[in-house]
Amino acid sequence: MLAFKSEEQSQLQLVEREEIEDEDDLFEAIDKLISHGINAGDVKKLQDAGIYTCNGLMMHTKKSLTGIKGLSEAKVDKICEAAEKIVNYGYITGSDALLRRKAVVRVTTGSLALDELLGGGIETSAITEAFGEFRSGKTQLAHTLCVSTQLPTSMKGGNGKVAYIDTEGTFRPDRIVPIAERFGMDAGAVLDNIIYARAYTYEHQYNLLLGLAAKMSEEPFRLLIVDSVIALFRVDFTGRGELAERQQKLAQMLSRLTKIAEEFNVAVYMTNQVIADPGGGVFISDPKKPAGGHVLAHAATIRLMFRKGKGEQRVCKVFDAPNLPEAEAVFQITPGGIADAKD
Ligand code: ATP
Ligand code: MG
C-alpha cells in the first residue's frame, strides 16, 4: 500500500506496515480450527456465515451458530471447544487489557480543532456516529477520513485500508483526488485502497457487512464508513406497524458493526439522519433529533451532532461520549476536505 509520492514517505509507510503485521496476532484465522480436528467443510460453513476469525466466533451465541445450515448442536460444541484452545475467551489481566487499548489508533479528521474535541481523532475499535442537518458536512468528513486513514500513524493516520458502504449514493471518488493531494498522497493509490459498495436495501447493506469480514481478515483495514446507516431502513419499513421489526433488524446490523469494530480494530464512522422532534418544545425554533431511537443511541460509542455555522463553517458538538466533555469545535469544508476554520 504505497500511497505516498516521495521515497522518504514510502519508507515511513513500510515501517508502519510492520507494526500492523505484528498486530495480526490479535486475531486468529478461523481455518486454524482445521488443525484442531474440525473438518474443512464446517470451517467453510462458518466463513459463509461471515465468521473468519476465532475471535469473531466468540461473538456469536450457540443459538445463532446452530442456526447455520449444516451445523448441528454437537458440531457447534466441538467447534467452540476447539476455538477455546486457540484463543482466550475468558478473563485477561488489566495489563493485557492495556496492551489491547494500545492497539487503538485515532485517525485525524483534517481539522486540529475537531481532533482535539475527539481526544485525537476518530477512534478504532469504536463506532462514531455523526448526525445533523443536510449539508452539515457528514459525508465530507467521510471522504476526508477515506484519505487520512491511509496516512502512517506518525502522521495521525491509521495506516490502513478503507471500506465504504454508501446507502444514499453520495460517494464521489473525484472528491478523493484533491483531498489526497492536500495530504501529499498519490490519488490513484489512495483510491485503490478504498473498497466501495452501493447498497440498495437494508438486506443488501447487512450482506455487505457479512462479506467484509473475509476481506478484513486478509488485509489491514482501519476504517469502515456507512453513509448513512438508517436511510434504507426508513425506506424499507414505512408502515407504522413495522416499527418494531425495523428496530429489531437495525439492532442486528448495529451489533454486526460493533463486532467488526472490535474484532478487526477498525474505526466505524456512520452517519445518521435527523427527524423533527415534536417534543422538542415551543422555544426551540427547529427542534431535531437523531433517527433510530434508543437502538441507535446505544450502539454508537461516540455521538456527534453537526450543524451549519457562518458561510462554509460547520460546528460539531459532542452529543454523547463515555470519556469526552460535552464541548464544541468549529471546522470548515474546503476543496481539500475537512480543515480548521479560518477566522
Ligand atoms: P446530507 O444530510 O444531505 O447527506 P451532509 O451532512 O452529508 O448532508 P455534506 O455532503 O458532507 O453534507 O456537505 C455538503 C457541503 O459540503 C456543501 O455545503 C458544500 O458546499 C460543501 N462542499 C462539497 N464539496 C466541496 C468542495 N469541493 N469544496 C468546498 N466545499 C465543498
Ligand atoms: Mg451526506
TrEMBL record:
Q: Which SMART domains match?
A: AAA (SM00382)
Q: CDD domains annotated for this entry?
A: DMC1
InterPro entries noted in UniProt: AAA+_ATPase (IPR003593), Dmc1 (IPR011940), DNA_recomb/repair_RecA-like (IPR016467), DNA_repair_Rad51/TF_NusA_a-hlx (IPR010995), P-loop_NTPase (IPR027417), Rad51_C (IPR013632), RecA_ATP-bd (IPR020588), RecA_monomer-monomer_interface (IPR020587)
Question: Where is this protein primarily located?
Answer: nucleus
Domain RecA family profile as annotated: residue spans:
103-274, 280-343
Query: Subcellular localization, per the record?
Result: Nucleus
GO MF terms, alphabetically ordered: ATP binding; ATP-dependent DNA damage sensor activity; DNA strand exchange activity; double-stranded DNA binding; single-stranded DNA binding
PROSITE patterns, per the entry: RECA_2, RECA_3
Q: Is ATP-binding included in the keywords of this UniProt record?
A: yes
Q: Which UniProt keywords apply?
A: ATP-binding, Cell cycle, DNA-binding, Meiosis, Nucleotide-binding, Nucleus
| UniProt family annotation | Belongs to the RecA family. DMC1 subfamily.
Return the protein name: Meiotic recombination protein DMC1 homolog
User: Native species of this protein?
Assistant: Actinidia chinensis var. chinensis (Chinese soft-hair kiwi)
